[in-house]
Amino acid sequence: MVDEKKGRVPINPPVEHVVRDLGRTVAEGIVELVPGGGIVTSALRVAHPPRSEKARDEWQKDISERTNEQDVRLDDHQDALFPTETLTGLAALLMVRIARDCPDGLGNMHYNLDELCALFPAEERQAVEDAAFDLKTLGLLKSRNWIGGWSLSMAHGTYEQVDAQVMDWDTKADAVDIARLMVGGNSGHAPDLIAKAGWPKRRFNPAFRLLLALFPDGQVRRVIQPDYPSLGVVLTPESKAMLRRYIAKSEVSR
pLDDT higher for 201 or 82? Predict the structure, then answer.
């Protein structure tokens, strides 16, 4: 039977050939009664292994091949979900500059082409534009477009990818620290949390945004304000249990 969705034949365990193997066992027992028969039996088994043994060898070979194939598929899937790129040249310099110039970690600082060129006056205008859209293609920058113009800013997911290299802190580790503050202080109020952390908004906000994604919409405060991705979250027994699990998982993965 062929798996139509995958286009592969399922690997079934080998069938035990009981009658055939039983007859062979009896024959081998008789051979071993003859002086030197043990050597003959060993040679026989090497030259002509039992059918079930051959089937098991073939099955194990198929399993090994399919496992290797699955490893390749998982690697491809991982690369698709979490692609890795090495930035070099002007694109790398531009990414570092935009990340460091961001004042609050909210991704609201936009640049048009003239403003990007002003960051690197020695570079050709076309080279700057190409580097900027290379970063956008990688998902590191987001754009606003209108007739005759555009502007670019940091994408929200970029902070956790570049800050460990550019800003000397780890956004994911910071999110775990904020989770501990939330559980320990029984508060999800952003101004209280940033005061306890003692961090600038540039460091606090990307990490806090990671935690907001764990909460249902009804528990995330949507008050319009300019300082945080949200003014905070409502903590419930269930959400605190979720945060404890989040903290525990991070400790296991270290």
Answer: 201
